[in-house]
Design goal:
Helix content is about 45%, strand content about 10%. By secondary structure, the chain is α/β, with parallel strands linked by helices. The protein has a five-stranded parallel β-sheet, sandwiched between helices. A two-stranded antiparallel sheet has the order 1-2. Strand 3, helix 11 and strand 4 form a beta-alpha-beta unit.
Length: about 400
């Protein structure tokens, strides 16, 4: 699937006219989708919350670079969502015990079911120091230490989250106590009870801070969030409902999150999908691991962040489905070690100045022969690149 996408939000809609025949006469109804969507956004008020956090960070001392601000915010949102899922898991477990005639407040029942809780939906059992209820009730002067303690505890008790967090994320930054408290209070307002679980909310937060903080963060640098409607379109076309799904430039994991949401909407089983991906940027790699773990999605993003071209972490594997939105017209991807790479043996070495066809041939090399299906985006210019003409002929 080749094409170019304009706009960066699922909320962008155009006006249209509904025509209704009433008693033989045509009645026109103006439906302003943009206003409807805007009204919904104002009700949810997510952007307003994030704007307040951005404003606090811009004025605060020691708030760091764009990347440090973004990572701090995303880590806080992750702790908030994980804490809320834990609370929901406990509430659900209590309800099940009551339905079975057991007292969830009995000391023996608490020891048997809650001290080392196991949740059927994959929710993580959080130690006391890592729960959002502990964080939100921590006094401002102790917040930075409490937050790093929570991250360390989660990393130690949940192997799938190992490597997701930078040690000393909050204490090394040492944001002012009052500023940190203000931000935590704002993040506390971001709840799936308010905003719904059907969206990739961590991805939305990620997208917001890319746009609002990073003037120079471009897709060339690997910092880009694919609009929801685009992901939904690709997923609808290739239907990745059962098998292995791969994204060679997975970013924050948004493709995976939104694809599995589509599977759930069709009453599918996400446990039948095995997700594989790779991401070059270390901070984005950690975010993807957090994002997928939070949603209970089984995943393999490799042991580290690295370039898909120079260090293919899934070499030799073939996938049922591939979804991707690689950086358009990426430069600087090539080195001499790639000259005779097996991925383009049957075609030609892609142009050093542009990675468009390198992405295509890379994906093709990982696609299951005969049965594999791929859906991806590239710039319109990829259809007419003169220096990739021979590759294109062979592909066709």
């Amino acid at each position: 699937m080749w094409g170019q996408v304009y706009g960066d939000r699922e909320t962008e809609e155009v006006n249209h006219i509904d025509v209704i025949i009433v008693g033989g006469e045509i009645e026109e109804q103006q439906v302003d989708m943009a206003k409807k969507t805007t009204k919904k956004e104002e009700t949810l008020n997510l952007d307003n919350i994030l704007f307040k956090c951005r404003d606090i960070l811009r004025q605060a001392k020691n708030s760091g670079s764009f990347f440090e601000k973004r990572d701090m915010m995303l880590t806080l949102v992750f702790l908030r969502f994980m804490g809320e899922k834990y609370e929901d898991g406990v509430a659900s477990l209590r309800q099940r015990l009551i339905e079975e005639g057991l007292d969830p407040d009995d000391e023996e029942i608490i020891k048997a079911f809650f001290d080392d809780a196991t949740f059927a939906d994959g929710t993580f059992d959080l130690p006391v120091e890592a729960r959002w209820s502990t964080i939100i009730n921590t006094a401002a002067p102790q917040l930075n230490v409490a937050l790093d303690t929570a991250l360390r505890s989660i990393g130690e008790t949940n192997p799938t989250l190992k490597g997701c967090f930078v040690e000393g994320t909050f204490t090394q930054r040492n944001l002012g106590a009052n500023d940190m408290k203000k931000i935590v209070d704002e993040v506390n307002k971001i709840s799936h009870k308010t905003f719904g679980e059907e969206k990739d909310l961590i991805g939305r937060v990620y997208e917001y801070f890319l746009k609002e903080f990073a003037v120079n963060a471009t897709k060339e640098e690997g910092e880009f969030y694919t609009p929801h409607d685009v992901v939904q379109l690709i997923a609808t076309v290739i239907e990745p409902f059962d098998g292995t799904l791969y994204d060679p430039c997975c970013g924050s994991g948004g493709m995976f999150i939104q694809s599995t949401d589509l599977v759930k909407a069709k009453q599918g089983d996400i446990s039948r999908i095995n997700v594989y991906g790779q991401e070059k940027e270390a901070a984005t790699y950690r975010l993807a691991k957090m994002n997928l773990a939070l949603r209970g999605i089984s995943h393999n993003l490799g042991s580290e962040s690295d370039s898909t071209f120079t260090n293919d972490l899934h070499k030799g594997l073939y996938f049922d489905y591939i979804m991707a939105n690689p950086p358009f017209n990426l430069k600087g991807w090539y080195n001499d070690n790639l000259k005779n790479d097996s991925r383009w043996t049957d075609y030609a070495t892609p142009p050093e100045s542009n990675a468009n066809y390198a992405w295509i041939l890379h994906m093709l090399s990982h696609l299951k022969p005969l049965s594999g299906v791929a859906g991806f985006l590239l710039a319109n210019g990829a259809l007419g690149d003169t220096d990739a003409l021979e590759i294109r002929k062979k592909l066709i």
